[in-house]
Write the structure tokens for this entry.
Amino acid sequence: MKKITILLFATILTSSVFSQFRGHFSVPNLNGFITLKADFHMHTVFSDGTVWPTVRVDEAYREGLDIIAITDHIEEGFHIRRRHVSGTRNSAYEIARAHAGNRGIIVVSGGEISRGMPPGHFNAIFLTDAEALNKANYTDAMRAAKEQGAFIFWCHPGWDAQQPDVTRWFNEHTQLLEQGLIHGIEVSNGELPESYSPEGHGWCLEKNLTFIGTSDAHGPLHFEKGERRTMTLVFAREATVESIREAVFAGRTAIYDRGRIIGKEKYLKELFENALDFDIRRSDNSVTISIKNNSDLPFQLRKTDNDPRMVYFRYLTIDPQSKASFTVRFREGTPTGNVNFIVENFLVGPNEGMKYTIKL
Amino acid sequence: MKKITILLFATILTSSVFSQFRGHFSVPNLNGFITLKADFHMHTVFSDGTVWPTVRVDEAYREGLDIIAITDHIEEGFHIRRRHVSGTRNSAYEIARAHAGNRGIIVVSGGEISRGMPPGHFNAIFLTDAEALNKANYTDAMRAAKEQGAFIFWCHPGWDAQQPDVTRWFNEHTQLLEQGLIHGIEVSNGELPESYSPEGHGWCLEKNLTFIGTSDAHGPLHFEKGERRTMTLVFAREATVESIREAVFAGRTAIYDRGRIIGKEKYLKELFENALDFDIRRSDNSVTISIKNNSDLPFQLRKTDNDPRMVYFRYLTIDPQSKASFTVRFREGTPTGNVNFIVENFLVGPNEGMKYTIKL
Amino acid sequence: MKKITILLFATILTSSVFSQFRGHFSVPNLNGFITLKADFHMHTVFSDGTVWPTVRVDEAYREGLDIIAITDHIEEGFHIRRRHVSGTRNSAYEIARAHAGNRGIIVVSGGEISRGMPPGHFNAIFLTDAEALNKANYTDAMRAAKEQGAFIFWCHPGWDAQQPDVTRWFNEHTQLLEQGLIHGIEVSNGELPESYSPEGHGWCLEKNLTFIGTSDAHGPLHFEKGERRTMTLVFAREATVESIREAVFAGRTAIYDRGRIIGKEKYLKELFENALDFDIRRSDNSVTISIKNNSDLPFQLRKTDNDPRMVYFRYLTIDPQSKASFTVRFREGTPTGNVNFIVENFLVGPNEGMKYTIKL
Amino acid sequence: MKKITILLFATILTSSVFSQFRGHFSVPNLNGFITLKADFHMHTVFSDGTVWPTVRVDEAYREGLDIIAITDHIEEGFHIRRRHVSGTRNSAYEIARAHAGNRGIIVVSGGEISRGMPPGHFNAIFLTDAEALNKANYTDAMRAAKEQGAFIFWCHPGWDAQQPDVTRWFNEHTQLLEQGLIHGIEVSNGELPESYSPEGHGWCLEKNLTFIGTSDAHGPLHFEKGERRTMTLVFAREATVESIREAVFAGRTAIYDRGRIIGKEKYLKELFENALDFDIRRSDNSVTISIKNNSDLPFQLRKTDNDPRMVYFRYLTIDPQSKASFTVRFREGTPTGNVNFIVENFLVGPNEGMKYTIKL
């Protein structure tokens, strides 16, 4: 009798899991690449998180993500539930992957190599065996990851618990970089009060590293309407593990972080242009520009460096999935010239918005 | 100088109007007809409402509606702003239609003939001149509407201010019906505490009248996530005024009212079947049925009249845009039989859910 | 170095836990008793839940609860994480209680004795050692609980996985009742699609058992604005474990379940009267009654059995923390009489609203 | 018969108005003054707004405001509904005040003197007759307001439609100031994409003018959970018109604007200290500081200028109605020193957060 009860119970649980909404987050594709939504940093009860690994899959399903990496801390010191929770460093990944089944969420294996500063914490993802990363020496741990073909990124470089006053790049980081053990930087970390690290942004550009944004979730995630976790946008050839791996090694990513898009100018410009349709109508002394935003991204424009004979907005916000329009009036002469502005929430350098010009 | 300022101001207002989200409400089409979302009852400052007519267009845009009718009360007694607000009985419609422009919202003209009970209030829509409805005698007013080809429906038959104890059909209603002056009944009215009228439902079926659901909005509308106004679903050949008019006269409608779908069984059955994909997998002693809901409608199922040898859910909720699954276990014999249930939020009779059977 | 890092991390975690809002749910006290908000049924990774026990405390803090019981299943069959999660049947409670500290949430120990039907599942709360409940025979398990002074209630009597067609009271339940092993019934269970059991309601009244409502949470809980978990309102002398225990044994409870209040008429009537202030003003032919709702409870009134000479509302909704008013008009004679109505969301019998009269 | 119907209808409308929630926005009082929530800038259909004046009262009620001013534009050019809406420049105020009745919302009369730049738009509030402000010359209009004892403030000084490139102070403003015709500046205007004007902030400090923040609402207002309109916090002796008038002339105000508090340091410091309770506990090498936020204001702290021997947070967010804690670790020596930080969302100068020190 008991056995039947348990089987029934399992049926109910499964159905409740599936009865959650599959969320959507509409971000334009790039020319030649599809845009996938990824979160490569999150924890479970297998280190210092508070949820079972299946919860991470349910959250990703609800928020419209395509790929997640479970990255519990490798080191014993972070296994704070070890009095009650046991398993290998692959267990959380295995549980989450089994739960994902064919629900359209790719789960990859990861681990966080978590040391004092320097060098701080590093996530290795696309692992085949996280146990091999359990080494006394952090360079050994990262080498073990590299041997598995892992992608390695420096986590939360500006975390104040490790960098109490300024965010520094240490000699240790230079050494790791020279050994090919750093491929990216977590420029945005959703668990920190100030998620964005301008220093991390500068280093990504300067050293040609991949931009990574993550939730670093420890507890259950829930977002109010219009809000989303910090994540990485991956510009991949197709929605497969291998294609995503190729994209992050090639640096084809950007970050979504609390309404901001952060990354290299060439990708952000393509996102901007593929998200918006422009319709330009001219009259005698003015030009009216109507904009249709087909994406779930917001755009915050601020005028800059403009020709003083042209009068137009100082600030213009284009909300997700909406339309906006503005008129350029010409104080004198022919209605031609450059509409210059900065897209303030598209960061192409440390705290620096993306410049853009519409030529009339 | 002042003139320039005003022009600028107008530009800004226009842009803020367009910067609102276009909402979506995904309801399946029927076989051969598209499903349009309509609200045929709402007020403005031109009678006893509190908003300018443009607000009604903005709300419809934000909520994903396809068509609205402005239906201010015809009678002087309801023109409670007349000390300050003047115009013809067509003014509100004209202002709203001009504001709608090419934003994808059809605006039609209407008017509410508002008398004590009997016969109560009646909305006439698809008018060409609402002024012509200003008659001392209500039958004359409705005849004037009919001459314009209007569709006429009895509003909130169960409104307690007019039917304090029970909801009655009066001799006056029979007379109007016999003269072809009643084409539909507002079975659901979103302004009432209990929006749904089971008596109205019964009369629609019994007298072959069209099911109408409306907001009857007087103040500004706003809905929390997942909530929507009460509205009419119109099954039309195309999204034109003429096609919608043809559909409501033909009775091809249903009502969306606070998560319930209300109307004739044949349309509700098609909505149910077009919204859901079923996947049936058999094993030795059980059958597992997976359901994918591709719509924004919820479905609340309750088992009924079942073969005692088959064990399955007592209640099953399928949320909007989600998946659900359940297993039918067979206590003995071959795994075939009927899965009988009622879709409790699909009302095909007064307070009566729609019966449905999946044959295994 | 590593040690310091870990210490720092713990500091951050603690602060993030405390930075959640303490929620409020304002329910009136009864005459002589304070009203405490309790949830006596919830799971963690220590049986078939998906969260660490600390999450249950954080949720209760955020939702304004006063007391929770952790009630993981006693039986091995439900320890579905046992490959990775170990501990005694007291571990989840110990972890949650330590986390609660002095945050104003009382945590008590519990366990769910989970068998096929009959007799189904039973929660025992206020345990001193949950391990003692691990017996082959369910009566032995419940006797062990009773020896610890536990309060025992039958969980989800109408759960369709156990009662597929109708909700039955079995001989086994009569036997348990006669042995003093059932003190209450979980009339409302928030995990079920239809949370409320009218049969359970009837049995509570008939057999003088305590009304219990619970979340039965397995996954993380989150509620939209205005929504709350299903819970038990306990009318206690003070906010102590002993006082709460006394109250539930004395049957001084009611249930909050999705906007409904469920329980014995005498408590519901006091809640109604203590939540609302009435102001009655008379004129010649009418009386106007203004109502101020000082609570977070809603009230849904429907007129019934009225004197035909008195005209007033058919439905009246009084929202939480708001005011409402209505006018009674007298068709003839002196303005005196009874305003009769049913409070439809205050259930004093199976699916039966509470009758109330205001004498004018 | 018609008459009765209309009376009934009015009853229903009144009751629906009262059934809205009275909102709360908990901001601490100052020493000797109570903090009132005010919005001194909003429009209706009587100029270029889209709502009837009663809507403004309902919104204020729902959002917990204490006082509003209806400030429709004085000039004909902004009376864009004049084809249909007529009345004096006092009509909107009179309608709103009658609707407010004794609901706890003070309504005062106002008008917006709306000219091209220079000098731009100016609101005059606490008027006795707004008609008197209808003058060809703006100085005459402001003098007429002054004769009525009005408080006059410059609206949206940085509105890009009037100041397309930079926000300038013109000679005309100097002249008005010298004549005593400017008493305050609308440093924050909720209708603009970038609500806050740092230039306006600087001028308030430099010229000793009163800080004003407003919604400048034209359409219906609605806010998601946790969001609020831009408003003025008035530190008054009591909740009367005369006391509020005295406070704004005395400059005892601050601004609430999208989570920021903006104003003079002395008031912001008192708000900070009255909102937060600090509990300081010392151990050998560290001090732990627990903070309880008893207000609905958020606080965003960033460390600055710190003693390098003291290690603590770089960023700390204290959410409304919540607790936070942090630990200061001492690298060497005795655990004493200054915890220096900036409250980034408390602006005491143009884009400049408030410095604060906790001495240990």
Chain B is about 25% helix and 30% strand. The two ends of chain B are 78 Å apart (CA to CA). The helical segments of chain B are 2-18, 53-63, 91-100, 138-147, 171-178, 198-207, 241-249, 265-275.
